[in-house]
Amino acid sequence: MSQKLKIAGWISVGALAGALTTVSLQTVARGSMAPLPLEELQQLAAVFGMVKTDYVEPVDEKKLITDAISGMVASLDPHSQYFDKKSFKEFREGTSGRFVGVGIEISQEDGLVKVVSPIEGSPAFRAGLKPNDLITKIDDTVVKGLSLSDAVKRMRGEPNTKVTLTIFRKDENRSFPVTITREEIKTQSVKGKVIEPGYAWIRLSQFQERTVDDFVHKMEEIYKAEPNLKGLVLDLRNDPGGLLDAAVAISAAFLPENVTVVSTNGQLAESKFTYKAAPEFYQRRAGGDPLRRLPAGMKTVPLVVLVNEGSASASEIVAGALQDYHRGTILGSQTFGKGSVQTVRPLGPDTGLKLTTARYYTPSGKSIQAKGIVPDVMVDDTEDGSPFAILRTREADLDKHLGSGQGAEVKDPAREKLREAALKKAEEEARKAPVDRKIPEFGTDKDFQLVQAINQLKGRPVLISKTMVERKEEKKEN
User: Fewer CB atoms < 10 Å away: N or C end of the chain?
Assistant: First the structure.
């Protein structure tokens, strides 16, 4: 690989809030800089001085500077960001797939924290927490009223420290405290199983440092259980992105050697690069090709790729590459449309800058920025349609997103009416009892899109959406 890829730096191609950003191993410091606008910098210094001396109460100097940097970067686009010490640590934890905590996947129910699943082998797993347990208190703090992110922050902490969770177990109708010692947790971004004889499902929820190894291990398990695999479903729904090299590796698992997977193009010479389906473009350490253990059948097994509006960035790279080479059928709904690359540059030992530096392109040269991957077969979320799809935020909905032209977005009146109807329906759904709500259960026999994917692999009729249409990039007023 080119030496420039080995110079310290991270490239990020991830989705927005709630979604973890994607990162790779490329970038160099810019060799030269354009002349600085001295008059404007003097004005900035003057404003800083006035705020410092004239504001109604004393203001912390460091906070003023930090906020100025944050505002400058945030004004560019939705994905550029200044990282202070805390956010930089959280960013690195998110891309490594490791954090210190108790080890549970959670959601919210009736204002409480619900245990979706304890991570196997974690402190919570060993303590006996079960799916559907409700957490009512974290230490002395009542959970009711806390946001999910606040609850997560309280459960995380330093290694070998203790946290006491008060659990309400509905099926036993009792509450009890559980004291758990925090430790480093390794999250699982890969799940998979044989759905029925001859057909398997593998899901990537994120592209992390361990994703490629976990993917290879899971595929080995699947082929051991079903040596005569007739079809595979690669599930990328709600996958917000992750490491760019991991996306290249997953693509390479299915594609011929050395074909182009994705290319990038930006202002810097180092931003113009082509990633190929070869080990030097995705192996992270010495030890050879991480894909070498994959069964040979992976290159030819019939493939369906499931995507939706939550599939962003690195997952769009995979879907776009497989679609361009006709390696599999893309099924589901139009993806998020995050087609830009972010470079993460350290500004010191514990702060950094995430800056949009390029757009990325599928092998055929298509940019999916603010558009996304359009499935070959559009399929609704459920048999009854996709009533809430219109409410899901995509890149084109984000303020200041990259696109052609400047100015305010031209609103589509028809879309606005559909949004109003969907909001009303969502409010009605929220009033129903939890057991009556239609929550997607990925990987089960109730997973409508997965059932249609298996039908596609078997050559059976697929229930194609009657209402879903391609959403094109919205024009902007000049």
Answer: C
Characterize the bridge pairing of strands 377-378 and 329-332.
parallel
DSSP-derived 3-state class of residue 121: coil
Q: Which residue has the higher pLDDT, 361 or 89?
A: 361
Q: What confidence score (pLDDT) does residue 40 get?
A: 92
- Measured distance CA(32)–CA(253) in Å, rounded: 39
Is the pLDDT reported for residue 23 higher than 70? no
The single residue of 133, 235, 324, 447 carrying the catalytic annotation is: 324
Question: Can you tell me the distance from the alpha carbon of 448 to that of 446, in angstroms, rounded to the nearest whole number?
Answer: 6
Domain ranges for the chain, please list them: 3-29+42-96, 98-186, 190-341+361-458
Q: Tokens 């973890």 — which residue? A: 20
Distance from chain centroid for Cα 253: 20
Is 137 an annotated catalytic residue? no
What burial class does residue 238 get, using C-beta atoms within 10 Å of its C-beta: 0-12 exposed, 13-18 middle, 19+ buried? buried
pLDDT tens-digit map of 373-417: 999 999 999 888 777 666 666 777 777 787 523 234 445 566 566
How is residue 58 written in tokens?
Answer: 């004393």
| 49: pLDDT strictly greater than 60 | yes
pTM above 0.70, yes or no: yes
Q: Which of 338, 340, 354, 386 is catalytic?
A: 338
Confidence of residue 275 (pLDDT cuts 50, 70, 90): very high
Single-letter amino acid, residue 367: S
Backbone angles phi, psi at 454, to 5 degrees: -65, -40
Per the structure block, which two tokens stand in for 81?
A: 């960001």
Q: What is the mean pLDDT of residues 241-258?
A: 95
Judge whether 144 and 135 are in contact, CB under 8 Å.
no
> Is-catalytic flag, 313?
yes
> In CATH, what is the architecture of 190-341+361-458?
Alpha-Beta Complex (3.90)
Which CATH superfamily groups domain 98-186?
PDZ domain (2.30.42.10)
Q: Which residues contact 426 (CB under 8 A, 6 or more apart)?
A: 388, 391
CA atoms within 13 A on the CB side of 291: 24
Band (pLDDT 50/70/90 cuts) for residue 34 is: low
> Active-site residue 218, yes or no?
no
Closest to 304 measured CA to CA, from 452, 153, 141, 115:
452
Residue that the structure tokens 């997607």 belong to = 440
For residues 219 and 224, give the distance between their C-alpha atoms in angstroms, rounded to a whole number. 8
Nearest by Cα to 341 from 318, 359, 315, 314: 359
